[in-house]
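Lecture notes, part 5. Sequence design as translation. It can be helpful to think of inverse folding as translation between two languages: the language of shapes and the language of residues. The source text, in structure tokens, appears below.
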């Protein structure tokens, strides 16, 4: 069954951490909707390999419309976490126990949304201490699946196992 997945994204996202999961999710028949401050904005990956035209502005969409959330890494999550609208959007998925998929620096958005306490997670190493300080159970593993439905990975090297896990999670 096809699912609708929100993707929170702004400039300087890690190119492959968006493009690779997006490709696999689309191949599995799911719909992805990119969300930033305004629809029509063009955001660029930090490697310069990817450019994405944003589908929806944060004020023009509701988290209730989506089955899952994807937060790619790079500098994008750090830029978005200063905006309470994105934090509230992320909180919805946690409160409603909807799947959240994030990699690398993506958990920074979750830290600011104050939803990581007690969750098993991984991330890029330098965000690990932030997760621990916020109460998460951080581990240095290529893939961590929390009982809440949260799926996390560390870096682009982990994308094959991350992509497989998120596609399988949406089959349930």
């Amino acid at each position: 069954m096809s699912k609708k997945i929100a993707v929170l994204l702004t400039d300087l996202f890690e190119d492959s951490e968006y493009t690779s999961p997006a490709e696999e999710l689309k191949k599995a028949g799911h719909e992805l909707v990119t969300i930033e401050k305004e629809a029509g904005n063009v955001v660029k990956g930090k490697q310069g390999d990817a450019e994405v035209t944003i589908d929806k502005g944060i004020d023009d969409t509701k988290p209730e419309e989506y089955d899952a959330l994807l937060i790619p890494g790079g500098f994008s999550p750090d830029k978005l976490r200063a905006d309470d609208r994105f934090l509230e959007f992320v909180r919805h998925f946690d409160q409603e126990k909807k799947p959240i998929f994030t990699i690398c620096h993506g958990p920074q958005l979750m830290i600011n949304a104050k939803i990581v306490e007690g969750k098993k997670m991984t991330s890029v190493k330098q965000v690990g201490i932030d997760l621990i300080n916020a109460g998460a159970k951080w581990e240095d593993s290529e893939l961590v699946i929390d009982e809440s439905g949260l799926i996390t990975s560390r870096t682009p090297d982990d994308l094959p196992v991350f992509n497989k896990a998120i596609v399988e999670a949406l089959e349930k």
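The translated text above is only one of many valid answers, since several sequences can fold into similar shapes. The radius of gyration is 14 Å.
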